């Protein structure tokens, strides 16, 4: 197998991994949201968590797809045309990634976390978060009201 063929194969594998990440993330997010609805969770809460998990899987897939494009374009005899096409693809996917990040977290990737007074969760010892405290999705601890 020639080097270029091997690089092309690696690019295809990374491409496939990107598609699998998106599809698997969509399926798992949908199943988890459906299970939460059956447990009679708040529809609004289920909706927001569903969008977050779905968005994260799409982001992961997009990053893998960009990596595959870079591998195939740069590692195999780049031309001005192939690098230009890669640049356009990366710009479009980067815009999509930034848009999804803003949608998921409510902030741009370069912005620091909002100061909501919460401290990062300490590593649990003894298998728990302590009395009167529950963990949240973001990894912070909130007192139980």
Automatic annotation (TrEMBL):
The chain crosses the membrane at residues 16-38, 58-77, 83-104. The keyword RNA-binding does not apply. Keywords: Membrane, Transmembrane, Transmembrane helix. The keyword Transmembrane applies. InterPro entries: DUF1622. Pfam families: DUF1622 (PF07784). Residues 113-145 are annotated as: Disordered. PANTHER family: SLL0939 PROTEIN. This is Uncharacterized membrane protein. It comes from Raineyella antarctica.
């Amino acid at each position: 197998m020639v080097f270029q063929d091997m690089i092309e194969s690696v690019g295809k594998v990374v491409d496939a991994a990107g598609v699998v990440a998106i599809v698997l993330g969509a399926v798992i997010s949908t199943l988890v949201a459906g299970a939460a609805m059956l447990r009679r969770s708040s529809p609004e809460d289920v909706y927001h968590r569903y969008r977050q998990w779905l968005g994260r899987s799409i982001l992961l897939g997009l990053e893998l797809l960009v990596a595959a494009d870079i591998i195939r374009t740069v590692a195999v005899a780049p031309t001005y045309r192939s690098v230009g096409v890669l640049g356009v693809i990366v710009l479009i996917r980067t815009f999509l990634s930034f848009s999804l990040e803003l949608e998921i977290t409510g902030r741009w990737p370069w912005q620091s976390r909002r100061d909501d007074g919460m401290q990062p969760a300490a590593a649990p010892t003894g298998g728990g978060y302590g009395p009167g405290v529950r963990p949240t999705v973001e990894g912070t601890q909130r007192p139980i009201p």
